[in-house]
Design goal:
The chain is mainly alpha-helical. The protein folds into 2 domains: about 1-115; about 115-155. The chain contains 7 helices and no strands. The chain has helices spanning about 1-5, 10-15, 25-55, 60-85, 95-115, 120-135, 135-155. The longest helix has about 30 residues, at about 25-55. The radius of gyration is 20 Å and the shape is extended.
Length: about 160
């Protein structure tokens, strides 16, 4: 979630250094970027330890797939952000960095559902949503095919 702050308005300040940004803003941004990177490495170590232990079984749990996807997207975002902070060069376009930052934050919000299973009052609802999604998979596949077919038809017309 820290990357949502770093990826927000501060990102414009870091990439456009000619606008007279106060020095403390750059220091705060750099500190938050560093903290997010350290947090990323801690999470990556935990996930890679699980992969080493479970091998291919790790990828059969969809929560683990969300975890590893979050790590990959966050790595890309933090890499672009740290490169921009360290070099003060606008190498990556703003909209690309915001897309990676937004996707990273979205996946981190999804991971909150995993932790909501720990509480008795919310565990039932998370289990209910998960069961509902598992039950409608085939229906969603059929609907997706129909939507893609109509999109293809309209595109060709």
């Amino acid at each position: 979630m820290l990357s949502s702050y770093v990826g927000g308005e501060v990102l414009d300040d870091l990439i456009n250094p000619n606008e007279g940004i106060p020095t403390y803003t750059k220091w705060i941004s750099s500190l938050l970027s560093l903290l997010a990177t350290v947090g990323w490495f801690a999470q990556a170590k935990s996930e890679f330890d699980q992969i080493r232990t479970l091998k291919w079984e790790y990828f059969f749990d969809y929560w683990n797939v969300i975890d590893i996807t979050t790590l990959i997207v966050s790595f890309a975002f933090l890499g672009m952000l740290n490169f921009s902070v360290i070099t003060e060069i606008s190498f990556f376009p703003n909209h690309i960095m915001r897309q990676f930052g937004g996707l990273s934050c979205f996946l981190l919000w999804i991971k909150i559902f995993y932790w909501m299973r720990l509480f008795k009052s919310t565990a039932y609802f998370v289990t209910l949503i998960t069961a509902t999604i598992n039950d409608i998979k085939l229906f969603m596949l059929i609907v997706s095919i129909i939507i893609i077919a109509y999109a293809n038809l309209l595109y060709c017309l």
